Amino acid sequence: MAEGPGSSAEPTAPIPPLPTLIDAGAPLMEPGEPATADFAYGVFQRGLYLTSLAVATPLAEQGDRAAQTLLGVLHETGLGIAQDKKKAAEWYELAANAGDVAATYRLGQMYLIGDGVTADKKKAADLFEKAAAAGNPGAMYNLAILYQEGEGRPYNEAEANRLLQKAAELEDVEAQYALGLQFLEGNETVRDPIKGANWLGRAARRGHLSAQVYYGILRFQGRGVEPDEKEAADWFERAAIAGNPVGMNRLARIYAFGRGRDVDPVEATAWHYVARAIGLSDLELDGYVGSLDKETVDKAMKRAEELSSSLIPKQQDPAAASP
Fold first, then answer.
1. How far is CA 192 from the centre of its chain?
2. pLDDT at position 34, please?
């Protein structure tokens, strides 16, 4: 384990500064070779942000839309330059007006949440529509959500469903999850539990934590899919190990009541304690833990400490999964 600040271990080497265009070394262009946006993106992907900035800036000023998009990324993220969301939006807008799909999508996201620009969901929807028409799955997903919410576009469940299906088929995992939810919980015109379970299963297999929890529930209940309590427990466990507190409490119930796993009050209590420490309690499990003897609770507390230290860092907001 790496030593923290102030430890007695040997000091680690200082982190070198980001290389500049002059001292970056390979990759370098051949003498006389013109700078290109592809080269700027190549060095950006290698982490040479200052080099990328130096190459992209004159190209962007000359109207190269790919370079303009890259400058938007650099200003938005603060890589190689001071973070400036307003300037990022300005570069994205120039590139979007020139037809760059990635810039159009990113600018739409900025208008969606008011990041660097004044929030405007209608303008966000317009931009997402342009990017979606060009095949961007993220734009399809975001536009679908606006149709579902009736913001920036009139409420239209059928159009949302069409867009979500296109994005899901292009392997956008958020669209797969949202489509699964829509088939399960949407209005009667789109509801289809079998399709819902199928899309949630696809998202779950790709590591979407909320989908793993919800798909586990479907497996447990046999809703839209054959019931299988053991497989349900497996999905809850995957989500729990990845840091999802809903999955933790679901797994705790599995161990508490012996459904899909053998009864194990220590594991049940330990997982519930970890979920509660993260901020999600469960009244039924609270009552279950209160009925246990002190020796079991003590063992569970030690087990909870072990579990907490071994959890995979969360990859998404666990609060999104609370069916």
1. 26
2. 75
- For the chain, the domain total comes to 1
Residue 123 within a domain: no
Instruction: Answer for the pair 191, 184: CB distance below 8 angstroms, yes or no.
Output: yes
Preceding amide of 27 cis, omega within 30? yes
pTM of the model: 0.82
- Give the pair of three-digit tokens for residue 212: 């793993």
> Rounded distance, CA 239 to CA 190, Å?
28
Taking only the tens place, the pLDDT of each residue in 59-77 is 999 999 999 999 999 999 9
Regions of the chain where pLDDT drops below 70 = 1-33, 313-323
* Residue matched to tokens 């620009």: 117
Token reading at 208: 């979407």
- Whether 224 is covered by a domain: the verdict is yes
Specify whether the CB–CB gap between 56 and 67 falls below 8 A.
yes
Domain hosting residue 284, numbered range = 207-323
Provide the residue type at 96 as one letter.
Answer: A
